[in-house]
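User: Sequence recovery, please. Input:
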């Protein structure tokens, strides 16, 4: 909706629609995926390093390359999710600013006038 709309019903409808969109934060979902992927990448990288220095086991060197590839893949996935999360957050901040402007226009945050003291 445009900023020139002064109809309270239209403003309230835009307010409710914006509030509904902001009730589910996509950025939080992306940032949670980023954190989990970074954690998994660190664990698998540590396992790959341990396998590379473990000379006692004959089969250990064969797992270094797959573990390294998995670790790098998880790190790339985390980076992609971080970028998506930052983009989603930027959009959410813009929508939140619009929501604050709508609340100000509708006077939802202003307390009602108090009766005069006797």
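Assistant: Recovered sequence (118 residues):
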């Amino acid at each position: 909706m445009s900023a020139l709309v002064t109809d309270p019903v239209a403003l309230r409808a835009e307010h409710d629609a914006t509030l509904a969109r902001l009730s589910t934060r996509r950025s939080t979902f992306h940032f949670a995926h980023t954190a989990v992927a970074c954690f998994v990448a660190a664990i698998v990288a540590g396992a790959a390093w341990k396998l590379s220095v473990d000379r006692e086991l004959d089969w250990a060197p064969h797992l270094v390359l797959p573990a390294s590839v998995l670790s790098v893949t998880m790190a790339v996935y985390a980076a992609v999710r971080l970028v998506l999360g930052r983009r989603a957050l930027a959009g959410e901040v813009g929508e939140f600013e619009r929501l604050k402007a709508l609340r100000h226009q509708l006077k939802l945050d202003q307390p009602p006038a108090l009766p005069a003291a006797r």
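The CA atoms of residues 27 and 87 lie 8 Å apart.
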